[in-house]
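can u do me a favor
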């Protein structure tokens, strides 16, 4: 999760797409150059250990666009593909979005 957050901060398209499940991976990503990521807080984790095939991470990521603050609160689902954790999908709380 932290690596994907950092990749969003740095607009690392290739890393993000490689760490996305093939069945849910978008064909392209659009980054807003005005968006500045400010921090990531992991709220909770469920499963996702060394012996698990799936896991969930609840997080809050804060950012600003043109000086206005927003937050992305998501409950993300991950699974292992060929031994690597990949992002499957997530449920977003729309209350903090623009």
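np, heres the sequence
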């Amino acid at each position: 999760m932290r690596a994907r957050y950092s990749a969003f901060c740095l607009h690392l398209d290739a890393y993000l797409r490689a760490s996305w499940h093939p069945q849910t991976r978008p064909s392209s990503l659009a980054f807003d150059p005005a968006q500045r990521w400010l921090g990531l807080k992991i709220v909770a984790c469920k499963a996702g250990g060394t012996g698990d095939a799936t896991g969930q991470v609840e997080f809050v990521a804060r950012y600003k666009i043109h000086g206005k603050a927003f937050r992305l609160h998501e409950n993300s689902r991950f699974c292992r593909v060929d031994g690597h954790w990949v992002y499957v999908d997530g449920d977003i709380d729309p209350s903090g979005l623009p």
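The chain has one domain: 2-96. hope that helps!!
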